[in-house]
Amino acid sequence: MDNLDLQPAADQPAGQPAADGGEIAATPVDLAARPARRRWPPIVAIALVAAVIGAGATVGVLAGTGRLSRTSQYSVSVYLKHDVTADQKAAIEAALSAFHPSGTVTFESRAEAWKKFQEMTANLPTGPSTVTADAMPESFRLATKGRWFDCDGVRAVRSLPGVDEIAVFQQPVHGYVAKITCG
Predict the structure, then answer these.
(1) Are 162 and 138 in contact (CB under 8 A)?
(2) pLDDT tens across 109-126, in order?
């Protein structure tokens, strides 16, 4: 009797008291003989198929337009403290391999930075008169590329003695330059 369920007798409606005021008689029913219920309505199956087709179409469009495998260019500037020593510069330059540069690493002196600054501000009506060549920081510059910028290089170099600041910019995407921040 493990596989039996009690049902009201065929001549008595379920939930109604017997005509004589007693209990409704129950007859044993074999559960294995019942038809199986559908557990998933057809609408759920259709929704799942549509979601899979939609995801496949999205991946296809992204791959077809090159957006799925796009490689971006990043420029990295490592600004040095004013009192950086030659040994610290050498250690910083050696650590820049953590960025996986796609070209050469260049060093920009204060004089070179001052010259670039003057060129950039030459067309301004009133140039910044308080800025001097001595105020310009020395820096290392490099380029790297990849689908995403890997902040491990920033973490490896940022804490070195002589490093003041690291700036990372993603080169123009849809006409805009994006600043990358690493935590």
Answers:
(1) no
(2) 999 999 998 888 888 777
